[in-house]
Write a structure and sequence with these properties.
Oligomer: single chain
Strand content: 5-15%
GO molecular function: hydrolase activity, acting on ester bonds; metal ion binding
Number of helices: 10
Family: Belongs to the metallo-dependent hydrolases superfamily.
CATH superfamily: Metal-dependent hydrolases
CATH class: Alpha Beta
Keywords: Hydrolase, Metal-binding
CATH topology: TIM Barrel
Mean pLDDT: 91
Largest sheet: 8 strands, parallel
Structural class: alpha/beta
CATH architecture: Alpha-Beta Barrel
Shape: globular
Pfam family, one: TatD_DNase
Order of helices and strands: EHEHHEHEHEHEHEHEHH
Strand order of the largest sheet: 1-2-3-4-5-6-7-8
Protein name: TatD DNase family protein
Radius of gyration: 17 Å
Helix content: 25-40%
Length: 284
């Protein structure tokens, strides 16, 4: 089983996690920029953090045979802090870097006017830099947040196929399924989704445009729940090809739109079997 975790915060994890992930079949990850658990006091701390996402963390991952990519953004929670807003002017410096495969996480936390402005501004940056966008759906009032997110995406003019709305569940999947955007699901020990619940959604809605991630961070989470989801799919009668589509080919296809995925020299075959074409670097 080959696994690409499309949303995991490895800065919060230990090298033991990388070792266990590699043993479980995880060969590639995307780490979105996010809130660190306490307020940052200015844009300089973001600069150091972004540098670590494109420098130190890929090096650390590489020691265990895991290919690391990142998404860069001002996250929704800190979009409300005026000390952090100048980060929006600094983002283009990192959005042009190799290994940055999307703008994210963007979207809503509390659905404030400040979040509206930051969300729209960063979707515009995604269009300007020809990058996909990773949208965080809020943990509170999620259905309204997803509806509002879809409206902002539509207003932005970005191709819906270059957007993933993450942290979906049984209620919100119905709102997103027919909009053309990608659907992201986070598998957690206690909250969000579980492997059995994810299997039922895959039965109901199919495997197309479905992304499954662990979203593991500094809270209670598990970077091996992508593997557990694949095993639950097989136990429920899904084929090896179904599992490969959800856990490998789908994230490669989505983030491959950036033209910056680098999966060479991994012990996986990064070719879409339906077309025979490499999609590692956006079809090059």
């Amino acid at each position: 089983m080959r696994i690409f975790d499309p949303h995991i915060h490895m800065t919060s994890r230990t090298t033991d996690d990388y070792e266990r992930m590699a043993a479980a079949g995880v060969r590639a990850v995307v780490e979105p920029a996010f809130w660190l658990g306490q307020p940052r006091t200015g844009p300089e701390s973001f600069a150091d953090y972004f540098d670590s996402l494109i420098g130190w963390e890929p090096f650390r991952a590489g020691q265990f045979g895991v290919r690391h990519h990142a998404t860069i953004a001002l996250n929704p929670k800190e979009a409300n802090d005026p000390r952090c807003r100048p980060v929006l002017d600094l983002l283009p410096r990192w959005l042009d870097k190799d290994g940055v495969v999307a703008v994210g996480e963007i979207g809503y936390d509390s659905m404030t006017p400040a979040e509206d402005e930051a969300f729209a501004a960063q979707l515009a940056l995604a269009v300007a830099h020809d990058l996909p966008a990773l949208v965080h759906s809020p943990h509170r009032d999620k259905a309204r947040g997803v509806q509002r997110s879809l409206a902002v995406v539509a207003e932005s003019g970005i191709d819906p196929g270059r957007v993933v709305i993450d942290h979906l569940n049984e209620v919100t999947v119905k709102l997103v399924r027919d909009t053309g955007v990608w659907l992201g699901f986070s598998i957690y020990p206690d909250t969000k989704m579980s492997p059995p619940r994810m299997v039922e959604l895959l039965r109901a809605y199919g495997t197309e445009r479905m992304l499954v991630n662990s979203a593991a961070d500094w809270g209670r989470s598990d970077p091996l729940l992508t593997r557990a989801t694949g095993e639950a799919m097989l136990a429920a009668g899904f084929t090896d090809d179904d599992v490969d589509r959800v856990l490998w080919r789908n994230p490669v296809e989505f983030y491959g739109q950036s033209g910056r995925l680098e999966l060479t020299d991994l012990d996986v075959t990064a070719v879409d079997p339906t077309t025979g074409n490499s999609i590692l670097r956006g079809g090059e």
